[in-house]
């Protein structure tokens, strides 16, 4: 009897180890997308990208109405984009998936997505907002047509974009209300929590706090929950505020503090992504600023790519002469959240005492001149 019990315990242990190993393999394998869709000729390009950071995960072509794609999603699940494009057609579809086996079937008017335990939540929200999204696109096209015909004027600008009853803002408010209700009903799901993080600036602090209180043990200590806590417990810096200090790894592999860069120069903090076209476009101007103001300005780049290899490759390729910092959490980092970064590039200029002079959300052609005028 004793021997039988020992054998049973060994079997249970083996099964448990097997299940744990299977779970580990499941978490670490790549995603696979197979598709059978109608309406595209052979050779049509298909590009799969991480929709959060723009990183291309795979590219392929349609042959005989089918394509197959695979890659690795870092920190799954997340939102990816599927771009199908040739000389005459362009189709963009967003999925919320992990490293799973996904099937896409049907025509472009009605696609069936299967194989993901995460995407069903996105489909639910999409069904609630599709009609409003279509209406918004229709109104945008009307607006563009008016501009092309030189019929645009201040009255139409107010009609379409006024915050007090404008057509587009009104549609956006209705979508925000639907999203709010969806998040409230589904907060203990990866996608609803993702939506709350991505759209956190559109919600009041009380709503976010309520959602945090509702999180179960699976999500309570997640990176997304940490972001939200950081967000509601910090404020957006305004002119005259002191910088938020942080510690990060530099390109030499050393941990440094942001405060260490403040002594005798102005500091320009740049939030940069290797997959951001505007970041790359801005690079010559940043190099020029760093060179022409080397005695008065110190540039510090914070790379928001979560992949360390991507960061270091970008650093070497850009051949920059100033410190580049990195946090493995990337856009999920405390730094990114505290500084209220929503787009890359984002720039913050501080004086020699660490007080904020100005913030730029995005790059414009007058950026260099505006920085020089602020020094």
Description:
- Helices cover 41% and strands 23% of the residues.
- It has 375 residues and is an alpha+beta fold.
- The protein folds into 3 domains: 30-117, Immunoglobulin-like (Sandwich), CATH 2.60.40; 121-230, no CATH class; 247-374, Glutaredoxin.
- The strands form 3 sheets. The protein has a 7-stranded mixed beta sheet. A 4-stranded mixed beta sheet has the order 4-1-7-8, with no helix packed on it.
- The model is unreliable at 1-28 (pLDDT under 50).
Q: Short summary of the structure?
A:
With 375 residues, the chain is α+β, with helices and mostly antiparallel strands.
Name some characteristics of this structure.
globular, seven-stranded mixed β-sheet, 23% strand, 375 residues, 15 strands, alpha+beta, 3 domains, Glutaredoxin, Immunoglobulin-like, four-stranded mixed β-sheet, disordered N terminus
Provide the fold topology.
Blueprint lengths: L1 H27 L2 E7 L7 E6 L5 E6 L4 E6 L6 E8 L4 E8 L3 E7 L2 E5 L4 H30 L5 H8 L5 H20 L3 H9 L6 H10 L8 H10 L14 E4 L4 E3 L8 E7 L4 H16 L4 E7 L4 H11 L5 E3 L7 H5 L7 E5 L5 E6 L5 H8 L1
Parallel strand pairs: 1-7, 11-12, 12-13
Antiparallel strand pairs: 1-4, 2-3, 2-5, 5-6, 7-8, 9-10, 9-13, 11-14, 14-15
């Amino acid at each position: 009897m004793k021997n039988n019990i020992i054998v049973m315990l060994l079997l249970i242990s083996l099964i448990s180890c097997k299940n744990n190993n299977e779970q580990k393999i499941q978490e670490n394998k790549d995603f696979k997308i197979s598709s059978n869709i109608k309406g595209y000729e052979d050779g049509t390009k298909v590009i799969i990208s991480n929709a959060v950071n723009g990183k291309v995960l795979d590219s392929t072509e349609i042959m005989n109405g089918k394509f197959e794609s695979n890659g690795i999603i870092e920190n799954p699940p997340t939102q990816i984009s599927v771009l199908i494009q040739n000389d005459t057609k362009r189709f963009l579809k967003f999925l919320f998936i992990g490293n799973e086996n996904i099937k896409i079937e049907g025509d472009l008017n009605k696609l069936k997505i299967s194989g993901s335990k995460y995407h069903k939540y996105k489909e639910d929200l999409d069904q609630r907002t599709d009609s409003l999204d279509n209406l918004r696109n229709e109104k945008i096209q009307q607006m563009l047509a008016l501009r092309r015909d030189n019929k645009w004027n201040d009255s139409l600008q107010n009609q379409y974009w006024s915050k007090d009853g404008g057509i587009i803002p009104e549609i956006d408010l209705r979508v925000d209300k639907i999203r709010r209700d969806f998040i409230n009903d589904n907060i203990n799901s990866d996608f609803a929590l993702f939506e709350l993080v991505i759209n956190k600036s559109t919600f009041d602090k009380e709503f976010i706090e309520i959602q945090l209180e509702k999180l179960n043990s699976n999500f309570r200590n997640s990176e997304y929950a940490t972001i939200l806590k950081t967000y509601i417990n910090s404020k957006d810096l305004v002119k005259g505020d002191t910088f938020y200090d942080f510690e990060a790894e530099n390109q030499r592999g050393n941990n440094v503090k942001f405060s260490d860069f403040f002594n005798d120069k102005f500091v320009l903090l740049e939030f940069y992504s290797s997959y951001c076209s505007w970041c790359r476009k801005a690079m010559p101007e940043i190099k020029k600023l760093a060179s022409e103001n080397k005695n008065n300005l110190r540039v510090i780049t914070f790379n928001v790519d979560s992949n360390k290899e991507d960061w270091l490759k970008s650093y070497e390729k850009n051949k920059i002469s100033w410190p580049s910092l990195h946090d493995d959490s990337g856009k999920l980092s405390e730094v990114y959240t505290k500084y209220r970064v929503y787009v890359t590039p984002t720039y913050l200029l501080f004086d020699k005492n660490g007080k904020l002079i100005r913030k730029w959300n995005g790059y414009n052609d007058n950026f260099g001149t505006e920085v020089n005028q602020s020094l």
